[in-house]
Amino acid sequence: MPGVSVGAVSHYRETAPVGGPPGQQSFLNGVCLIDTDLPPHKVLEILTAIEKTLHRERTERWAARTIDLDLLLYDDVMIDTPDLTIPHPRMATRRFVLEPAAEIAGDLIFPPTACTVRDLLNNISEPHPLIAVVGVPGSGASEVASVVADAVMGRPLHAPAALPTADGGPRASLARWRQTLAAWSAPLDRHHWRDEGVATIADYWCDGLVAAAAEELDADELDDLRADTAAVAARSVTPCVVIMLVADSAAIEERIAFRSHRSHDHTDVFADLAAAALVCDRSGDRVAPLLRLQERLLRRLRSTGDRAPKAVITIAASDLSQAALESTAAVEAML
Description:
The chain is of the alpha/beta class. Helix content is about 35%, strand content about 15%. It has 2 domains: about 5-125, 7,8-Dihydro-6-hydroxymethylpterin-pyrophosphokinase HPPK (Alpha-Beta Plaits, 2-Layer Sandwich); about 130-335, 3-Layer(aba) Sandwich (Rossmann fold), CATH 3.40.50.300. The strands form 5 sheets. A 5-stranded parallel sheet has the order 10-11-9-12-13, sandwiched between helices. A hairpin with a 2-residue loop joins β5 (about 80) and β6.
């Protein structure tokens, strides 16, 4: 195409289909490196034109197709628009993308985490990876994590303790937060790490405690908890991938109502909402504080600090069945 020159093309790899309808044949995957002066949206237009020329049909998501051209990276540019997201939002956990990409362009930088493509491949190549499925109370993180662990024959790891509650007082003490951190970190201690199954699928992330405590502790206490969390991380297994379930206000309201009406049914569905009083506005608003917590978690996951995971996937949590399917596909693609 005019304005584009191909610099390198990887070997093609035949891979098992991930997600989509059952019974599909293997897919053929490869990566190419191009040089161009065209802007990202123009490159996307060219890729779409090639797909149309080769009779690409868009029917069911992740179904078999003649060709599928994705724009993975464009220098160090980051774009998030309805029609184009760069880097590709799923590339950091897709082995069928990272292996050919590392073959021809392993030193390219993945801007969100400032690591290389080769680093991303190494990140998902741990012998027994820890994958965290997280979200605010009511997001369905625990439920989705259980589905994923079962689907990939992984070891489920549920939060050993609930988020601290006020116990009738205005807020939980720093000591209570430290107790929760100790409980959460104990199963992650490197010296006692269990590597049963192909991976461990946890429904919590220790750094999430700091985000949850941000509106409950004063500045000095929060700094102390942040330091404790850093010390714990130094001796713990940390997630190589974090899947963040993002819920909208309507979904959270609906699940709070469900939990309230089911309080005597002994169901564990959305049981984490029992701790939602922790982040309840003094005015009684139960949704706004959870949305603020969700934003704090997203900001932490998008940071490039020492403990920030190299691979983060955000998945809409309004439809839990769909969220479970997408989360499972994401994990299957990395294993």
